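QA checklist item 7 of 12: single-chain prediction sanity check.
[x] sequence parsed
[x] length recorded as 640
[x] structure emitted
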Amino acid sequence: MEKGEFVLHHSKQRKGNAVYIYYMIAWYVRKDKKPVRQIIKHLGKLDGYEIEFYRNSIACLNHDPEIFPCNLNTLSVQKSNEYLSCAVGIHFWDYWGLSAVFGNHSSLREVKTSDMARILTAMRFVQTCSKTWTTELYPDTCLYQLTGVSPSSYNKTRIFRELEEIENKREELGKHIFNFAKSKGWTQGELLFYDLSSANISGLQAVMAKWGHGKDGYNTHVVLLLVITPEGYPVYWEVLEGNTAEAKTIQDLISKIEKTYGKIESVLCFDRGMVSDENLKLLEGKKIRFITALDGNQIGYFKGLIDFNLIEKVKSMDIKKEVELIKEHLTEATFKFVKENLFCKEFPLTDMEKEKIKNITQKLNITQKLDIDNRRYFLAFNPELAYLTHKHRKERVGTFREWVEEYNKELSFALSNRKRETIDKAIKKEIKRKKMADIDISYTLTGYTVENRNNEGKLKRAATYRIKLGEIAEESYAGAKQYDGLWVLITNIPEEGDKDFFNKTKFDSYFEIYRLKNNIEEAFRILSNFVGVEPFYVYKDEHIKAHFTVCVLSYLIDITILNKIRKSDKISNMDLHSIFYALKKCKQDIIQLDERKVVSRITQVTEKQRKLLDVLDCTYLVAPKYLMDKNIVSIDKKCA
C-alpha cells in the first residue's frame, strides 16, 4: 500500500432546507503531487461521541504516539505518586530563593546540599516521619522529576551527612528570609516577635534534652526559640537545652541576633513570661526598644491608680446588649477604644504616685522592681475577657468538686492508713494546678475507718478521711474577680517617638502590636500540629538542631501560603490541613495500557485546586507544557 494515512472524511447533502453530514473512513495518499482519496467504509450520520471514537481509532491506525487502543482487561493503574503538594512546596522554596543561601560550594557533589534541604522540607508536606522513612516515601513522590535527585541518590547516609551542612547555614537562612521579606515590602524590620516553646524527646541519647517542666508537664525536652516578623516570617530560630529559663534567654538572643544582623533597630515584642527587671535593663542598656506586659500579680502595684468602682460597674453590664453604653462609660473615664472590646489608658504618673509605687515594691520585697522613671505603663481593660475569665474560674471550681468526689471514693477504698498531711498536700496541689489559689476555698477532713478486701481477698482495716468542701459563694470570688480583664503593658519607647514609630509600623497603638504576639503562638501551633516537630527521631545535638531548621523552613512555606490565602478575595479562608488535603488529591497516576505501553498523567484538576493555584500564583504547575517538560505527563513504550 502506498505511503499515506487514514482520515475521517465527510460530505454534505442538502435535502430541502436541511443539510445532512455523512462520514466515511478513507485512505488519503498523494500521487503525482495530487491528492487521492479512496473510500474504505461508509459510516453514515454520526453523533459527537461517535465522531471522537472514530477519530481516535483512525489515529491508532496512523500510529499517533499520543493515541492508544484500550482494553479494560489489560488497563491498570500501577501507582499514584504525590505531585501537587510537593510541587507547591518546591515552588515556594524557589520563590524565596533559599537555594542561593547554600551557594555553589557543593556543586561538585552528586547531590547538592540545597537539593537535600529542598527535598527534606517538601517531604514535610507528604508525611511527617523520620528522615530514614522519607527514603521509603521518596519513590512515591514526583520529587525526582522536580529536583533531579534520583531515588538511589536520596539515601539515609547522604541525609545525615547533609543535615549538619544544612544546620551550618541556619543563621544565613534567617538573614536571607529577613532581607527577602524587606525587599518585597512585607516587613520594615521595625518589629520582631520572640517566644519559646518546648519539644519532648524520648530516650536518654539526646544530650541537650533535659528532664523538667515543659509545655506538656514534666518530660525530657529541649527548648525551641523562634523570632518572627509581624507577618509570621521566621528570621531567627534555635534549639536550646531543656530547662532553659525563659527569662534567661534574652541576653544570649540579643548577642546572637546582633552577630547575624548587626545592631538591632527593631522593637522586640515578647510575652510577659520573659519579663524580668534584669532582662529589661539589659535591653535598655543596649538601647533596644521593647513592648511587653506585666504578670497578672504585678497589677497590684498600680492599685491606687485604678478606678475599681468604674471597672465593677462595667463588669456588671451585659457585654452583648450594652456595648455602646460600656464604651461610653469607659471613654468618659479617659480610656481609649482600641478594637474588639479592648480599652486602654496610659498611667500619667506624678512624682507622688511614683514614690507610692516604689514603697509598695519595697514593702513586698520584690526583686523585679519597676523602673517607673524610664518606662511607660498602660492599663488595658477588656470587659469580655473579664466575663470569660470569671466564667472559666467557676468551671474550674466545678471540675475541682468532681475531683474531690473521685478522691473521696479513692480514700474510701483504702487498704492502709492514710495520713492527714498527705491528703491536705494533695488538695492544695490540685487547687494550685487548677489555678484557684486566689479563691476563698475552705474544706474539712473527717476521719473514719473502712474495711476493704485486697487482691488476695483478705479483709483489711484502715483509717482514712473524707473531704467536705465549704460553701463557695459569690463572695468567695471577690478577691480573684477584682483584676479580671485588667492587665498592664510596658514599653520603653518615649512618648515623642510614638508618631514616627506608628508611621513606620502602620499601627495606631501598642496594644494592637502586643496582640500580634498571637502570630508567634500560631507559628508554634503550625510547627507542632501541621509541620510535626515532634517526634524528633534524631538524638545527636547537631541533628536535633538541623531537624528544627528543616521544620522552620517548612513553616516558612506554610505561612507564605496562608498569608496569600488570607489576602485573597477569590477563595474563602482555609487552614493548612484543608489546603493540603485539596492539593494532595492531585497525583501523578502511572497507568499501564497493555504489556508494552505505560503512560503517566495527573489526576484531573478540580475547580477548587485551580482556584488555590491561581491565588498562590502557580497555575503553571498544571500547565501541559510544564508537565511534559518535567516528565510528569509522559508515554513509556518500554515499560511492562
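[x] summary fact logged: The longest strand covers residues 18-31.
[ ] second reviewer sign-off
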